[in-house]
């Protein structure tokens, strides 16, 4: 083998290991970012939303309604908030699972 072939072989090996490490890093980053956003969304959802009693026609009826505690004038009905909550939770779960799968797939193929 000539020196040029040895150098090109070493560069190919270095490039492959760099791509391998980058994919593992991206998988870890996606997993941790997804988990952090998941935790943050749960925290915000619990802090800002609560069940209130609504008074209709002078009698008190308990209605499930979400009210933002930061601004009492802005309220979102529960039938709108729950699908939004479920959609965001599903997307965050998908991010975490995608990152975990990418990382484990890269580790499996490298062994």
Keywords:
111 residues, alpha+beta, 3-stranded antiparallel sheet, 2 helices, 71% helix, 16% strand, rod-shaped
Query: What share of the residues does DSSP label as strand, in percent?
Result: 15-25%
Radius of gyration from CA coordinates? 25 Å
Give the ordered list of helices and strands. HEEEH
Structural class: alpha+beta
User: Which residues sit in consecutive blocks of at least 5 with pLDDT less than 50?
Assistant: 51-74
Order of strands across the widest beta sheet?
1-2-3
The rough form would be described as rod-shaped
**Total of domains:** 1
Please give the alpha-carbon distance between the first and last residues. Answer: 28 Å
Q: Main β-sheet, in a few words?
A: 3 strands, antiparallel
Mean pLDDT: 67
Oligomer: single chain
Count every beta strand, where a strand is a DSSP E run of 2 or more residues. 3
* Helix content percent band: over 70%
* Helix segment tally: 2
Characterize the structure shown.
The chain has one domain (3-110). A hairpin with a 2-residue loop joins strand 1 and strand 2 (59-67). Residues 51-74 have low confidence and may be disordered. Helix 1 (3-48) runs antiparallel to helix 2. It is built from two helices and three strands; from the N terminus they run H-E-E-E-H. The protein has helices at 3-48, 78-110, and strands spanning 51-56, 59-67, 75-77.
């Amino acid at each position: 083998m000539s020196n040029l072939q040895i150098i090109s072989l070493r560069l190919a090996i270095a490039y492959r290991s760099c791509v391998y490490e980058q994919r593992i890093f991206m998988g870890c980053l996606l997993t941790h970012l997804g988990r952090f956003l998941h935790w943050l969304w749960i925290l915000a959802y619990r802090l800002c939303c609560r069940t209130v009693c609504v008074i209709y026609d002078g009698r008190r009826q308990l209605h499930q309604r979400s009210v933002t505690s930061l601004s009492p004038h802005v309220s979102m009905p529960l039938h709108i908030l729950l699908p939004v909550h479920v959609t965001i939770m599903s997307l965050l779960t998908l991010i975490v699972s995608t990152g975990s799968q990418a990382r484990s797939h890269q580790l499996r193929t490298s062994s």
